[in-house]
Amino acid sequence: MWGISEQDEMNSCDSDSVTVVIVSYNSRGFLHRCLESLHEDPSSLVSGIIVVDNASSDGSAAMVDADFPAVTLLKNPANLGYAAAVNQGIRAAATRYFLILNPDVETGAGAIRALWEFMEKTPDAGIAGCKLLNPDGTLQMSCRTFYTIPLVLLRRTFLARLFPDSRLVREHLMLDWPHDSDMQVDWVNGACMMVRREAYENVGGMDERFFLYLEDVDWCYRMKKHGWRVYYVHSGSMIHHYQRESAGSLPDRALMSHLLSTLRFYDKWGSALYMLRKERRLISLTLTVLLDVLMLNVAFLLAYGFRAAIAPYLTKPLFPISIYSSFVIFINVVCLVAFAYSGLYRRSRRGGFARDLVQISKALLMSWVVLMASTYLTKTIAYSRIVITAFLPISAILVTGARVLQRAIHGRVRRGLFDLQRAVVVGAGPAAMDMRNRLALAEGGAVDFVGYVVPVGRSPLDALRPLIGSTESIGDLVLQHRINQVFVAETDLPRDEMAGIVAAVRRYGAEVKVVSEITDMLIRGSLLDEITGIPVVVFPPASLTGTRLITKRLSDYLWAAVGILGLSVLTPAVFVARSVRGGDYSALRGAYKALGSVLAGRRSLVGPVAPVEGESLSPGVIGIRNAGAGTRRGVREDRLDMYYIQNWSLSMDLEIIVSSIMRTSCLFHATRPPDD
């Protein structure tokens, strides 16, 4: 009854049959009764049952193997979450309809056929749910309206006890609606959902970011966004053994899971958050500036404290800190202007501790020159130059640390799959699929892929799923699906059509990003210009030519000399430490040898891994691969050396040196043998 032959697998999408998908997690008893009830209903049209076990520890999988051998059992090594397991089951099915069942549901006679008959006569139905009964035969409220913020507060907080008969709650639960007739609803309980394959292929499966709770709400919401409808079907009924108690009595873990899913739902669909996400650049910039100001002022207080601590050893007096109030404002203004001038607030800027430290230090050094000069211009008050000098390294460390922490927190939020940029890809061929795959690998999982938008007049590949519409209505699609970014993967579109896409998308506050082969060639300093009205991309001359090449070599000599001097200071301590640990001095000898080759002119301290054809720069002792992703800016691995040569600067060399020292230090601490 439940087996699917090879021929069926090829033709079953056109057959009048249903595949049941059940996700099980420690529900052995309920699951057994559910499978029995399916077996007892010969009219159900069920041609296959798939049980996805999410690493149950109660023997559920073994029970299915032993008692229901015709059932297809998929065993996961870990609990992947309900949504992921449902999608896994659907991918293993091959029928026109899928019936998603909770294991604690007992199917009534004729209920599945009733759902199937309704779906057959209602072509716009993407999802349908049947009448669910409690074990005592009373009606369960299995269809609802969508959540609102006031409703969440009334359902999931202490307000549930204060207002148990709230009108909003009654409307949400549809308590006053007739449940003895079929009706279109916002969403139906995920305990029983019959899904049409065409709708699934158009909309996609459950959103796997919802580990537990609200994945059914989100699925129904997306169905409606794509033009499908969700129905409650009164004919036929099933018993659902889970009966939700009052919101206040939920176990803490379940309550927290529900609240987390609620936050995720509103992060994805909330209008207010969508509007804020459109202003993410302004919000992020504001937070960065405020953090910078905070760190600059803390740095000044620490520098002042340092000067106060060494006051007994100095002859000049230290004025009270209140005298510095106006000067502190001046410090903030000078430093923020220097940060802006140095590009520390640019949108395209990439981060990384070494990169931030170097760039921020450069800006602060400019600020220090201005601040020191200002102390000579004030005739009435002599501000402490020691305070200003101490302020320089302290503020560099604090501002850099704050920025790294800010990015780490935001990265953690995105790894938790919040605050994602909802994106679509415009295209109809392999380029669109390639762009989709690249988005899936986006750093930090920062993109929530919504679907493909097909250019007008083009036929999409069958593999492009889900399709959400054409470029003809792309503006409406942006609003409808809360889109933040539109990636145009096919650049051979007519100029008028491309201009129309850009205009329509930008009008609604989203970004357009056009994929082009020329982006691989862009270097620092590239700019857009026009010649007689024709837009052009200007590439400046290569960085390492003429006097800049001489400057590069002189800087290599300088840093190599500094390195040898530093090693000579550390050598006695290294000899003592290594004599205790076995006398291995190979690393020390290698460092001297490498730096010596730089001074001899045979190597660059920082340079390409191997000689580059047509370039006179020698291979480097260290290279751009030693720096973080902030310096690479997403450049392909095989083009890193050329990228370095084309974009060289003294600050880039310093970033690479600092990053190399940090990594070498981390490696040393990670690999050195333990003390005896």
The domain tally reads: 4
Structural class: alpha/beta
**Percent helix among the residues?**
40-55%
Ends apart, CA distance between termini = 69 Å
Q: Any idea what the CATH architecture of the largest domain is?
A: Alpha-Beta Complex
Count of DSSP strands: 20
Shape: elongated
Would you tell me which CATH topology of the largest domain applies?
Answer: Spore Coat Polysaccharide Biosynthesis Protein SpsA, Chain A
Oligomer: single chain
> What ranges have pLDDT less than 50 throughout 5 or more consecutive residues?
1-12, 243-250, 667-676
CATH class of the largest domain: Alpha Beta
Radius of gyration: 33 Å
Descriptive report:
- The chain is an alpha/beta fold.
- The protein is built from 24 helices and 20 strands.
- The protein folds into four domains: 6-250, Spore Coat Polysaccharide Biosynthesis Protein SpsA, Chain A, CATH 3.90.550; 280-415, no CATH class; 421-515, Rossmann fold, CATH 3.40.50.720; 547-671.
- Strands 1, 2, 3, 4, 5, 6, 8, 10 and 11 form a nine-stranded mixed sheet that branches. Strands 14-13-12-15-16 form a five-stranded parallel sheet, sandwiched between helices. A two-stranded antiparallel sheet has the order 7-9.
- Strand 2 (46-53), helix 3 (60-67) and strand 3 form a beta-alpha-beta unit.
- The N and C termini lie far apart (69 Å).
- The model is unreliable at 1-12, 243-250 and 667-676 (pLDDT under 50).
